[in-house]
Amino acid sequence: MSARLRITIALILVSLIPIVLIAYIAQRYIADFQTLVTDTNQSIISQTPSEEIAQLLNTLDSKLQTQIQDNNIRFYLVIGVVTMVAVVIGIIVGSSITAPILKMVQAADRATQGHLEAFQPSDDPSELGSLSRSIYAMAIQLTEGMENLEQQATERTREMSRRNDQLEVAAQIGREVSTILDVDLLLDEVSQLISERFGYYHVAIFFVDDVGEYAVLRSTNSRGGRNLLALGHKLKIGEKGIVGYVAGHGKARVAYDVESDQVFYKNPELPETRSEAALPIRIRDRVVGVLDIQSISLSAFSLDDMRVLQIVADQVALAIENTRLFAENRRIRKDLEQAYGQRIVGSWARRLKNAPVTYVFNRLGVETSDTQLPSAESEAYLKEPQIDSETNQLTVPIFVREQVIGSLVLRREIGFAGWTEDDLLLVEDVLEQIEPALESARLLEETQIRAMQEQAVNEISTQVRRSAGMDEILQNTVRELGKALGSSRAFIQLAIQAGDELPG
Fold first, then answer.
1. Chain centre to alpha carbon of residue 480
2. In this model, does residue 380 exceed pLDDT 60?
3. Alpha-carbon torsion (389, 391, 393, 398), positive or negative
4. Cβ neighbour number for residue 96 with a 10 Å cutoff
5. Taking Cα atoms as reference points, which of 141, 484, 183 lies closest to residue 323?
6. Is residue 251 part of a domain?
7. Which of 45, 103, 110, 254 holds its CA 20 to 30 A away from the CA of 177?
8. Is residue 310 predicted with pLDDT exceeding 60?
């Protein structure tokens, strides 16, 4: 059952209630009147002595009863007509009341679907008209509020997307920091990424020179910036431009409108700049550079932008420090390797000085030879594999810790197959395997010799400590050293030269 039908029925019922009450009361009065008339007539007839009069009274009573019945019928007809009129009036009134309400409901449904033009306020001065106008005003406000929310959501989504892009750039730069060890290459990558992903037309990175006097341009992405880079562009620290200010004070600075900024330095190579931001590049508490960003738009840098750009500047500082440490470690390692290599060469030189240095293999087996190969210090000393096709000879150097300590020479008879790359690879693989074994054997020999020397020192020290006087100490010392070193003669002397001045 629709709302309109329910309201109409309710109005009809309300209008019928007084009609029913009136009909009920009138019926009671008519019934009582009829009973009173009938009883009165019967009482009079019963008391009349004349039959003619009684008959006449009965005739009048019959006519009266007939008249009363006719009046009852007329009364019920009137009641029926009044009821029908009330029903019609209820239907008309119900329609007049429900029609605008239903119209407002339908218009409100259409408005909720986005068709606001379907809901029009009524000019009716009644309460329904006032309600219609209030609902229309509320719908307008809700629509405007929804449009504002949609606009805010769109702007927020765009801002979040931009912020995600910025954080992605920061993360990408962080990954580059861990992989690129060339500072110039890293700086070029950083300036290009910031320009492309943040939308700034000029990005530059300055380094503070060694004396701390100038901020020198090291990397940039724009055409004007490259022209400045070719000219060796630099700015006086603490005096010239926003970059000089940041390098001198160590604090980030933003010029939302460069025309009204007193510190801004207008560079003829960058005429489109409308706003500029510069951030310090720090290593610990020391400013080593400046990240400079310029835009063609006014107020191009928000607080969130500055936070992300500071993260980028900190990552650039980390990259610079990592590169410096890597270069320093590489230099130290090179020095250590060179010193250790020289030590290895010296140790092998001492080891091979008096021992056989050449071993020859022939059909009879392996034997030593007195043939001396060029020393490691000579220019003829072989440092690369060599194949001599005239003598059918293959010569391969022997390395220990990247230091050449000798060579392996293989020779075939003339007329036999020549040496191939596969032969050379086989020989090099074998020599790589014996390299650690040779070094371990040398170290073991040195350890054994050192142990024997320490034992001899301990024995001599024991004999000396047992000596009672100076003469016995000197005698035991010269005797034990002579024995330990295999010397045929040994002597020890205590004397002071005549020219030496005595103290005191």
1. 76
2. no
3. negative
4. 11
5. 183
6. yes
7. 254
8. yes
Q: Residues 136-154: pLDDT tens digits?
A: 677 677 777 777 777 777 7
Q: Which residue has the higher pLDDT, 324 or 252?
A: 252
Rounded CA gap, 414 and 176, in Å?
58
Give me 121's structure tokens: 């306020």
111 in Cβ contact with 139 (< 8 Å): yes
Structure confidence at residue 497 (pLDDT) = 64
Residue 255 belongs to domain spanning: 184-328
Mean pLDDT of the chain: 77
Residue 279 has pLDDT above 90, yes or no: yes
Instruction: In whole angstroms, give the CA distance from residue 209 to residue 491.
Output: 65
Please report, rounded to a whole number, the percentage of residues in the chain having pLDDT higher than 70: 73
**Shared-domain flag, residues 297 and 363:** no
Separation of alpha carbons 86 and 18, rounded Å:
10
| Residue 275, phi-psi category: left (phi > 0), alpha (psi -120 to 50), beta (remainder) | beta
Looking at the fold, whether 323 and 374 belong to one and the same domain comes out as no
For residue 280, what is the enclosing H or E element? strand 275-283
Q: Reduce the secondary structure of 372-424 to three states and give it as a string.
A: CCCCCCCCCCCCCCEEECCCCEEEEEEEECCEEEEEEEEECCCCCCCCCHHHH
Give bridge partners of residue 218 from the DSSP assignment: none
Q: What is the mean pLDDT of residues 391-400?
A: 84
Report yes or no on 238 lying in a domain: yes
Q: Is 82 found in the same domain as 7?
A: yes
- Residues 287/247, Cβ–Cβ less than 8 Å: yes
Alpha-carbon distance 466 to 369, whole Å?
48
The pLDDT of residue 276: 93
**Residue 327 is inside which H or E element, if any?**
helix 303-352
Residue 153: what pLDDT?
75
The 10 Å CB-count burial string (b at 16+, else e) for 123-160 is: eeeeebeebbeebbeebeeeeeeeeeeeeeeeeeeeee
Q: Which residue has the tokens 């409100």?
A: 108
Select from 54, 81, 112 the last residue of a domain: 112
Separation between Cα atoms, residue 479 and residue 460, nearest integer Å: 9
217 vs 292: CA distance, rounded Å: 10
Here the tokens at position 17 are 């209630």
The confidence score (pLDDT) of residue 379 equals 42
Number of domains comprising the chain: 3
Do 318 and 229 have their domain in common? yes
Identity (one letter) of the amino acid at 186?
L
- pLDDT tens digit string along 183-227? 788 888 888 888 887 888 999 999 999 888 999 999 999 999 999
